[in-house]
Amino acid sequence: MSPDTLQGSTIVVTGVTGQVSRPLALALARDNRVIGAARFSDEAARAELEAAGVECVPVDLVSGDVGALPADADYVLNFAVAKTNDWDRDLAANSGGLAHLMEHHRGARAFLHCSSTAVYKPDGHRVFDEGGPLGDNHGVWPFLRTYSICKIAAEGTARWGAERFDLPTTIARLSVPYGDNGGWPAIHLHMMLSGHAIPVHVNAPSVYHPLHADDILAMVPRLLAAASVPAVTVNWGGSEPVSIEEWCTYLAEVAGTEAHFEPTEQTIDSVEIDTTRMHELAGRTTVPWRDGMRRMAKALHPDRVP
After folding, report:
1. Which of 10, 23, 65, 221 is 20 to 30 A (C-alpha) from 249?
2. Are 153 and 94 in contact (CB under 8 A)?
């Protein structure tokens, strides 16, 4: 495998109907055999994927039903996530389902598990390297009470699976993904266009590392090339740290609206990350955040963005 491209490989992409993995699978399907795994409750998403050549295979990670996936796949990209707020169900899918998936694909050349910077314990304006303290970051949001804990549990499973099955693995802690099909900044833009204030933590600014879909695609081959036993863990985000306040002010400007902020303790705190290891393993990102967010805004609101 080239560290810069994937060609002629069989690649399983789980959670393939998601905001991050769908454009990734569509792009990879141009030069590879891509098998998309999900529950496929969204028939329109399935139709789009199949039209682009992605083979869609229903799976159930809660029960561990992954047997229909090709066991001889070269690479597995795990972007599946359950966030139903049911603790038993979400732990079964995110941790137990991952164990079943790694066992089924124990012969793969490399396994990429997409985690989240939501695993870091809120700590003001600390810059988190991969050894930073873990904790319940997203529990403050009622609709994501299980998210951080399940992501931490899944990382433990990924490390166990890498050593148990001698399966080279990369655990990538994703910051804020976005692209022409949306993301957290797109939600903020929609809120501003609807006249709503943006909640930000009282301990301003709220800094993250937005990562454009183009950079996600470019970095996946390098993250797979870095996979190892024991698993390697790496922060995964844009090379430029950017605050919610900054990107909302910019998006408001390009869309001809105003940004209003609502400081509160009932939202997630800043999670700035150390990208040193990412730069060593996967290089720097290439899409400047202003360029990427203008593209996103124009794609989603062409009537508002010139």
Report:
1. 23
2. yes
Distance of CA 136 to the CA centre of its chain: 18
Paired residues of 36 in beta bridges: 13, 56
* Confidence band for 78, pLDDT divided at 50, 70 and 90: very high
Decide: 224 and 292 in contact? Cβ < 8 Å: no
First to last CA, the chain: 41
Give the chain's domains with CATH numbers: 10-181+209-240+271-287 (3.40.50.720)
Report DSSP letters for 77-99, one per residue: EE-----SS-HHHHHIIIIIHHH
CB proximity list for 154: less than 8 A, separation 6 or greater: 94, 95, 98, 113, 115
pLDDT in tens, 114-161: 999 999 999 999 999 999 999 999 899 999 999 999 999 999 999 999
Dihedral through CA 174, CA 33, CA 108, CA 162, nearest 10? 10
